[in-house]
Design brief:
The chain has one domain. The protein has three helices and five strands. Strands 2-1-3-4-5 form a five-stranded mixed sheet, with helices on both faces.
Length: 119
């Protein structure tokens, strides 16, 4: 974790603030560790514990993904690298791959991707 990195409490607080805005039906923090990626969902009651465990095990939070549902099979995904990783292409690539995977999990066949955050 770099000196500028936020704590797990800061990240959960940010995730909770985004959840409270009510834009997203799904919000998550992405934590990467070597070849493992963990998704920490905003609605998970154990989100802080899971984020702490992921970071304690050497994982690094890299970004956030949000989803706005427009119909049963469509919506818009929003992605945002954390400030610590702004402009890092590998982070954008991982977020895009995860969006594709989450879309399959949600059975969303038509979706747009915005590489920005919804405020």
């Amino acid at each position: 974790m770099t000196e500028e990195s936020r704590t797990q409490f800061d990240l959960i607080e940010e995730l909770d603030q985004e959840k409270a805005k009510g834009f997203f039906c799904l919000g998550l923090v992405v934590v990467i560790h070597r070849t493992t990626i963990k998704l920490i969902f905003a609605h998970d009651e154990r989100r802080l514990e899971k984020l702490e465990r992921g970071m304690r095990d050497g994982g690094e939070p890299i970004g956030m993904i949000g989803f706005v549902k427009e119909s049963e099979t469509s919506g818009t995904f929003y992605s945002q690298p954390l400030a610590e990783h702004a402009g890092e292409e590998w982070v954008e690539d991982i977020l895009q791959e995860l969006i594709d995977e989450v879309a399959r999990m949600l059975d969303v066949s038509q979706f747009r991707v915005e590489r920005r955050w919804l405020n």
